[in-house]
Specification:
α1 runs antiparallel to α3 and α7 runs parallel beside α10. The radius of gyration is 27 Å and the shape is elongated. By secondary structure, it is α/β, with parallel strands linked by helices. It has 10 helices and 9 strands. The chain has a 5-stranded mixed sheet with strand order 5-4-3-8-9. The chain folds into 2 domains: 132 residues, no CATH class; 163 residues, 3-Layer(aba) Sandwich (Glutaredoxin), CATH 3.40.30. The chain is 53% helix and 11% strand.
Length: 309
């Protein structure tokens, strides 16, 4: 009688352990999907915020080191916990599943999902790294003569300026343009980058001869309603000066398209970023990208003016 009672109890525990393993697997898959799965047409705002808070996702959408540790440690920790507190039941459950057609199918499906996830993660990381490589590889000490002519079509803009108008690339055609990136609550590198870009523009073309476009890196705080005061603080009040913002999703998508590396601290809202500036020709061609300062920008602007490509 005792043996007969013991057998159902062990079988019940094995099935419960198997259900627990399945639950851990489903939760882990959902965890990885939440962190990495790309959304066609751009990530919604709630997803961007969730990834930033939960995984410290950077501008390319990938977690930082702590985020990867969480993604890997969470499933390993839960599986390890089950093995420690319920070792016999877990092993019995796996053996029970392995000798039954439905269990074999479930195990095979789990293996296929796990392998597909690994391959998809590898492709996701590779594409993100490739997308940011052109800007990441720029040395900050290059002279104007050493900068390579890009000759590419720039990414789109379509954001709101400090006057409440939507600025597109078509609006810039007919005059050269400098496009750089900053945010209003930055009090060190951002004002310097904007000042250097404005000075280089004024030196070569004059304040009305070329457009200066600054795209915010902080759409959370630099809302369209605040752009006028930000532009005034940066002394960007001329007819060819544009400070751009929009919804979080719109700005983040634009920054990604322009390969702007950045890392936002969700606790303070501050954004770490390089002093990246693009120069566009008067027909809208992306000519140069630089991480250097005023003198190099002037040299690049002079190359544009002289047609030295």
């Amino acid at each position: 009688m005792e043996s007969g009672e013991k057998q159902p109890v062990e079988e019940r525990d094995a099935r419960l352990a198997l259900l627990a393993l399945g639950g851990v697997f489903v939760i882990s898959v959902g965890w990885w999907v939440l962190a990495l799965w790309p959304v066609p047409g751009g990530n919604p705002e709630w997803l961007e915020r969730t990834r930033a808070v939960c995984f410290n996702a950077g501008p390319d959408g990938l977690p930082d080191v702590s985020g990867w540790i969480l993604l890997i440690g969470q499933p390993l920790g839960m599986f390890g916990f089950l093995l420690v507190v319920w070792p016999r039941a877990v092993l019995s459950g796996l053996r029970w599943a392995a000798v039954r057609p439905a269990g074999q199918l479930a195990l095979l499906l789990a293996v296929v999902v796990a392998m597909s996830g690994l391959v998809g993660t590898g492709l996701r990381v590779s594409s993100a790294m490739a997308a940011r490589a052109p800007v990441d590889s720029l040395p900050a000490t290059m002279s104007a003569e050493e900068h390579i002519w890009l000759g590419q079509e720039p990414a789109s803009l379509g954001l709101v300026d400090q006057r409440g108008d939507v600025l597109t690339l078509a609006d810039l055609e007919g005059r050269p343009a400098l496009v750089t990136f900053a945010f209003g609550n930055c009090h060190d590198i951002c004002p310097l980058v904007v000042r250097q870009a404005r000075s280089a523009r004024d030196e070569v073309w004059g304040p009305d001869g070329a457009a200066l476009v600054v795209v915010t890196l902080d759409p959370w705080r630099d809302t369209p309603a605040r752009l006028e005061s930000v532009a005034r603080r940066w002394e960007m009040e001329g007819p060819q000066d544009y400070v751009l913002s929009g919804s979080i999703q719109e700005v983040e998508s634009t920054l990604d398209a322009w390969n702007v590396a950045r890392s936002r601290d969700p606790r303070t809202g501050d954004v770490a970023h390089p002093s990246l500036t693009y120069l566009l020709t008067d027909d809208g061609t992306l000519a140069f990208a630089t991480l250097s300062g005023r003198e190099v920008m002037i040299g690049l602007a002079e190359r544009l003016q002289a047609g030295d490509f």
